[in-house]
Amino acid sequence: MPPLDAQIKSNQRRSRWLFLLFFIVYAFLGLAVSLRFGSGALVGFGVAAVVIVVFTLTMGDDMAVAMAHAKKIESRDQNPRVWDAVEVMAIAAGQPMPRVYVSPDPAPNAFAAGKDPEQAIVCVNQGLLDLLDKAELEGVVAHEMAHVKNYDVKLMTYAAVLAGGIALLAEWLSYTLFWGGGRDRDSQTAAIGAIVTLLAVILAPLAALLIQMSISRRREFLADASAAELTKYPQGLASALRKLGASEIPAETGSSATAHLCIVAPLGARGKASSLFSTHPPVEDRIARLDELAAGQMHNSSPAVA
Amino acid sequence: MIALIAVAAVVLILIVWFVALYNRLVSLRVAADDGESEIDVQLKRRHDLIPNLVESVKGYAAHERGTFDEVTAARTAAVGASGVAAQGAAEGQLTQALGRLFAVAEAYPDLKANQNFLQLQGELTATEDRLQAARRFYNTTVKALNTACQTIPSKFIAPIAKVTEREFFELEDQAEAAVPQVSFS
């Protein structure tokens, strides 16, 4: 399947560039900070960031499951439908069997968590099980397995922490603009510092947010493409997304922290999620790409493709 | 001095590049081995279910000897097959024999309501789903492995990493096998 491989490769390349962009924004902010406060402030912020990353990576998956009020499925007898879908997709992905959870939430959604494939979690909402048939459920689980296999969970945690850090730093800098922080050095340095700070305060949070959304959206397309590869049946996930897109049941559990790992952007209590700053691309776009993959598969179908 | 640094840099880049290619080849081989052993696990589970299934059908349709013998013979052949290509072909035969066994079962409503039979049938279907998944993973890995063995530069490193091309595990789809081939030409 050349179209599939090409899409995965180009997505990965773009993600790397976006991550580089992230660090450029960070460096720009760092420059602003060191111009006003000297390098000591930067060290303090770096230590705080490391603490946050370590904490999220060690506790993150347990917190996500606890927030969803999910129950662990210990054996196949407890829920054969979910267990079978997860085990089949784990085999297809060549991954170890993840821990399986079912959340009582009536909103049709699912998410993956865990810092590496060996300790992964796949959590499915009851609402999803009520809505989807076998091929659709396998498509959704395959999408989650793809997030696990591609180390998306880890990547997205870093992205969230980086974006959060930039926002925090920019906010803090904006106070110093008005209250005249910084030290008395020669006026030229002070002027440059003020201009850099002003730019940083305005541009950095915006850039960080856009980069984060962009990475997240790219990852969704990539996970969709991988899911099509794992099931060799893009129509299953496409059909599931059609049903999920039409659903209007709001989520009862979870939080924005896990939103980027869900199969579709969870609906808040107010209903529709906004499209510009959404963590997920529009469902219609994802379905269109899956349909393209399905058409491509039919064109160069080989005996190995079932 | 500068020339020396340049030479050292080039050598270093070549070493890093070689190590990366070597590791990729080895990890593909390990993945293919994993895929093959997963296929074996699912095949064994499938083979273990069949004698019980035949017994449960026998209880209701004892006179369908021909079908039972056929399934048993196909199972024996499948258990004895070695190498993924031979295994795939033998499993195809077994799938067809099982298809005939289930066609026989269709004629006995009591059997179709039997809890034991239904459970065995369900387990067989679940095992076949896993087998198909294992096949997809194995074949995808072998495709990448074979491509690496055929393309430059990894082609030259494959013998050093003791990586060779592999056969695909072809398995006739049950749905495909059930549909008769119609030709209009």
Mean pLDDT of chain B: 86
The residue ranges of chain B in which pLDDT falls below 50 over 5 or more consecutive positions are 174-181
**Poorly predicted spans of chain A:** 269-276, 301-306
- Describe the largest sheet of chain B: none
C-alpha end-to-end distance of chain B: 76 Å
Describe this structure in words.
The complex is a heterodimer of chains A (306) and B (185). Chain A is mainly alpha-helical and 306 residues long. Chain A has 10 helices and 4 strands. Chain A has a 4-stranded mixed β-sheet with strand order 1-2-4-3, sandwiched between helices. In chain A, α1 (2-37) packs antiparallel against α7, α2 packs across α6 (152-179) and α6 packs antiparallel against α7. With 185 residues, chain B is mainly alpha-helical. In chain B, 79% of the residues lie in helices and 0% in strands. Chain B has helices spanning 2-58, 65-80, 84-106, 109-113, 115-150, 154-157, 174-178. Residues 174-181 of chain B have low confidence and may be disordered. Classes of the chains: A mainly alpha (306), B mainly alpha (185). The A-B interface holds A 80, 84, 87-89, 91-94, 229-230, 232, 303-304, 306 and B 31, 34-35, 38, 42, 126, 129-130, 132-137, 139-141, 143, 168, 170-171, 173, 176.
Q: What is this structure, in a nutshell?
A:
The complex is a heterodimer of chains A (306) and B (185). By secondary structure, chain A is mainly alpha-helical.
Tags for this model:
heterodimer, A: 306 residues, mainly alpha, 4-stranded mixed β-sheet, 4 strands, B: 185 residues, 0% strand
Blueprint of the fold:
The complex is a heterodimer of chains A (306) and B (185).
Chain A: H1 2-37, H2 40-67, E1 71-73, H3 80-93, E2 99-103, E3 110-113, E4 121-125, H4 126-131, H5 134-149, H6 152-179, H7 187-231, H8 234-246, H9 256-259, H10 283-299
Parallel strand pairs in A: 2-4
Antiparallel strand pairs in A: 1-2, 3-4
Helix pairs in contact in A: 1-6, 1-7, 2-6, 3-5, 5-7, 5-8, 6-7, 7-8, 7-10, 8-10
Chain B: H1 2-58, H2 65-80, H3 84-106, H4 109-113, H5 115-150, H6 154-157, H7 174-178
